[in-house]
Amino acid sequence: MFEIKYIVMNKLIAAVMTGLSVFSAYADGNHYIQGEISAGEQEVQPMGTELSDGSHVMDPVEYWTVRNAGEFKNCFSTEYYKLVLSGKINADDVRALWRMSLDGILTEIDLSDTEIEDGIFPANAFWHEDEQHSGICGHPHNIRLRSIALPSNTKEIGAEAFAHAITLEEIVLPEGLETIGDKAFHNTGLKEIELPNSFNGFKGTAQFKDCYSLCRISFPDGVKDIPDYFANKCLNLKEINIPSSVRTIGEHAFSECRSLPVLYLPEGVESIGDYALWCCDAINVMVFPSTLKNIGERACEFWAVNPERKIYSKAAVPPTCKMSNNDKTYGPFGNSLSNFQGNTWIATDIYVPKGTAGAYRSATGWNYFVNYIETDDFPDASVDEIVKDDSADESAYYDLSGREVPHPQPGHLYVRKGKKVILSPAR
Length: 427
Known about the structure:
By secondary structure, the chain is mostly beta strands. It has three helices and 32 strands.
């Protein structure tokens, strides 16, 4: 029914000693050794793990070929640390993997050589609230999964598939993936996400909400909408690549992403939802495209006082600002009547197209700000990188006309070493 493959470079050495000894195959990259375990021991010490004395031990790797979907479900073991599967699998097999990671030591899973039934990685694959919830203290029992490569034919990741997998740091998404479901990666330990070129949209909301270690998200062309609460409270998110295919950014989509220094909204974006960028207080450079029509209630509020911040609005007609139903003095940027120091600073420099400053000053919501600067020099999505202001850097900066700029200013667009860059304030 199953074919178990142990890959070993050295010959197995059997030794008969006092008492019974058992041997297990271990792998470390291209080097393979034999590990000896006393028959009385209950657990295998994971390989590649540093021990308290500084030494390292090898991780046991199991290789399985599943001939028929559903057959792996009966192969439960608490001793597998790394598992590599090939063949056909289904939701029952995935449930077995979840159980091994919950009750055993399964940490790394490679399914890249498998095909999942119907191309759908099942909802709640690694999150079963009723079975993981603790009735004693109210906290869930967490799985140990750290990395996973999904089946090669995965087209959809179901709702809450990896929700609350707080140790999950890495996932390999196959080319061919098209959609990710509601809360699929809510509250995981993922560090970065690069969606494949085949990806075209989301189902539901909050796909990466509360991923506190997430630093980078890259979208491919084709995504049209960023869902509500998409990356809400991703406190360490520093880089977002939003393609020109995006039209709307949902409510609370990036609220409380407090490490995000620069955000370009490309040409094509038309609407920013309520609270979408609320409390993104690390933003130094914000670029609103000429296509932007609407900015939601309190969408850009609580960007704390930062004299170096630059906000660019490329629209010739000021985008409509949604005001609060409860307080008409409250718009996307806050309440100008409040002196709370966390409010978006009313004296922020706002760069607008030439001849439009008067329209912005009188527009509802935009009349929050007092400093308007007319310009034709706008950053755009073709910017190659963000460069931190560093006095020790001797590289020459040029304006877009090729003139050298002896004293480049944070928030402005320059050419350096043949690339378009924006200078970010030193911290």
